[in-house]
Design a protein that fits this description.
The protein is an all-alpha fold and 88 residues long. The chain has helices at 12-25, 29-60, 68-77.
Length: 88
């Protein structure tokens, strides 16, 4: 796998914390930054894919959603003497 060098501006306090972690773990600061960015990108990619999948379900009409009004009426009836049956 090929790699590329990038430049990132960080607050000095963040760099100091990375330096402490790097020294404690015996790993270079650059390795810690690479791992952090890779982990972030993986998590964000998963989230984006999940959101896009849900949006696609909604667009296809496969999301199993219900109208807001019947659901709100049912929830608002909770605890009253005229509690409604759950909407279908």
């Amino acid at each position: 796998m090929s790699t590329e060098t990038v430049s990132v501006r960080l607050e000095q306090a963040t760099l100091d914390r990375l330096g402490v972690i790097a020294q404690a773990t015996g790993r270079p600061r650059a390795v810690l930054m690479t791992q952090a960015i890779e982990q972030y990108a993986e998590t964000e990619a998963w989230q984006v894919a999940a959101i896009q999948g849900a949006a696609d379900e909604v667009a296809r009409g496969d999301a199993g959603l219900m109208d807001h009004a019947p659901l709100a009426a049912w929830l608002n009836s909770w605890g009253s003497s005229q509690e409604l049956e759950p909407p279908t």
